[in-house]
């Protein structure tokens, strides 16, 4: 085949990294060596596979595709639709979820934005949220603030009250959490951690959320691989929404997913009237166009490979 490109243009497109930018190639070489010589215990620094790297560095990165499968704002997205639908199917299968009862958004760029996208979908500005205090093992994206400063943007947009662990046992103080929840009456209760070495009692979290009419959001970013493997209990039986990053124990590319309930949310015991979940539309809208534009298709492709 022949192309209407100058020799210099062709070389620019076809040269390897080492040929086109030896300075950057040398820095990468040193980082690869550092990784090989290190014992890494950081949750966010898992080692992904060659197949995932192949997908990340593929021409899937070239395609722009605002919107969702079957409803894009640009043409030529038939293969992008196929890979996103494949990724969604594999994500649900990885956690043994029924597609009739659960959906998933795989376009999220990373974990903290995914949490913000969920909050924005479920709450209005200055609605209330409760999450585990950061010094007690929680995460910034669960609304951390100090008496002097709102550290997380979450605590700027929403009112937040932390719950804590029992300092003697190191276990979440569910009794105090339940009491404070009844006083504070949050719209969302977040069950998730970044530095907590115990199992979360999701059943108890569900009971507390139900006692005040709150949504239960589980952030399983650090333990999602263990949940998928069935090594520890799954939160899906109890949660309304589940978020996770994809590069920790799932060993995929850097990104995130939002799982959301579908179908019946509750049944009125007196009338038998069903209240349906309405999460799919608001969450998808919050991701795009609410917070993001075109998704990173090479990342979604790599995530499908990892799953």
| Major β-sheet strand ordering | 3-9-8-7-6-4-5
| Count of DSSP strands | 11
CATH class of the largest domain: Alpha Beta
Q: How much helicity do the residues have?
A: 25-40%
Biggest beta-sheet profile: 7 strands, mixed
CATH topology of the largest domain: Aspartate Aminotransferase, domain 2
The CA-CA distance between the termini, in Å, is 37 Å
Share of β-strand residues: 5-15%
SS element count, helices: 12
- Low-confidence stretches are none
Question: Which structural category do the helix and sheet elements fall into?
Answer: alpha/beta
CATH superfamily of the largest domain: Type I PLP-dependent aspartate aminotransferase-like (Major domain)
Q: Which of globular, elongated, flat, extended, rod-shaped describes the shape?
A: globular
In N-to-C order, the SSE pattern is: HHHHEEHEHEHEHEHEHEEEEHH
Walkthrough of the structure:
With 307 residues, the protein is of the alpha/beta class. It folds into two domains: 38 residues, no CATH class; 199 residues, Type I PLP-dependent aspartate aminotransferase-like (Major domain) (Aspartate Aminotransferase, domain 2, 3-Layer(aba) Sandwich), CATH 3.40.640.10. The chain has twelve helices and eleven strands. A seven-stranded mixed beta sheet has the order 3-9-8-7-6-4-5, sandwiched between helices. Strands 1-2 form a two-stranded antiparallel sheet. Helix 6 packs across helix 11 and helix 8 runs parallel beside helix 9. The longest helix has 17 residues. The chain is globular, with a radius of gyration of 22 Å. The two termini are 37 Å apart. The model has no long low-confidence stretch (mean pLDDT 95). Pathway: One-carbon metabolism; tetrahydrofolate interconversion. Belongs to the SHMT family. Interconversion of serine and glycine.
